[in-house]
Design brief:
Blueprint (H helix, E strand, L loop, with lengths): L3 H15 L4 E6 L5 E2 L3 H8 L4 E7 L2 E6 L3 E6 L4 E6 L11 E7 L4 E6 L5 E6 H7 L14 H9 L5 H5 L10 H11 L12 H20 L40 E3 L7 E3 L6
Parallel strand pairs: 2-9
Antiparallel strand pairs: 1-7, 3-4, 4-5, 5-9, 6-8, 7-8, 10-11
Helix pairs in contact: 1-7, 4-7, 6-7
Length: 275
Amino acid sequence: MPELPETETIARDLNEAIAGRKIESVKVKKADVLREVGKTAFAKRLSGATILGSWRRAKLIVTDLSTGDRIVVQPRFTGALIVEDMSSDPSLFGYSTMRIALDDGRTLHYCDVRRLGTVALMNEPRFTEYTGALGIEPLDQTFTEAQLSVVLRGSSQPVKKVLMDQRKIAGIGNIYANEALWRAGIDPSRAANSIASDPIRLLRDEIVAVLQESIEARGTSFRDYRDARGERGRFAEQLQAYGRGGEVCLRCGARLILTHAIDGRATVFCSHCQS
């Protein structure tokens, strides 16, 4: 967390809010979040650059600069990129690790309570190398039933674990793997290569649907996730599996099971209607 819908939401917000703005100055308060360069080089290379735009790759938020550099943020558990203006709540910035001052008086912060996320500065060749091992994007038109079938039939591991493998499919994490498998009626512990064609078709459709629905709701917030406006996502209200262990299955009425046996992560499923 954040996963694909959350990082997509942040990237879209940033692209709308700060594309075209010039960076006036940079202050790094907690350098342990930086990767690739130190804080002096980071500040020097950003200062004076114009922000061309922001976009997402997998769970990464990428901001292109006029210098050819890219700011690459991996929020992990508690990281957030938030734009501060005159109307912002000051409490949002208590865990700010850096301040990027823009030419219109606003400030872009990277905030991270646990500081497990990272902020890297890369040129394009380094970015291409860095992301070269990432898998297919599930919201691309090229993510078809045939593509998903190739991914699943190549592994005997539990299907949930395969869906979360970023080398195979980029951006799906624990929340949306749980949700897509519940929607498709597939047991998360089932061997990926044992799933037939019809369930694969349904699973592909449910992966795309749940990701798109979460983006429309601006992501899922439980504790820490905030979008670039500092606001919480609303998709938690629509979750049908994740976070509902021990509660009634909304499809069949049985009790949902919570286990950590599959991949060490919280897996919620219905043993009655997921097979």
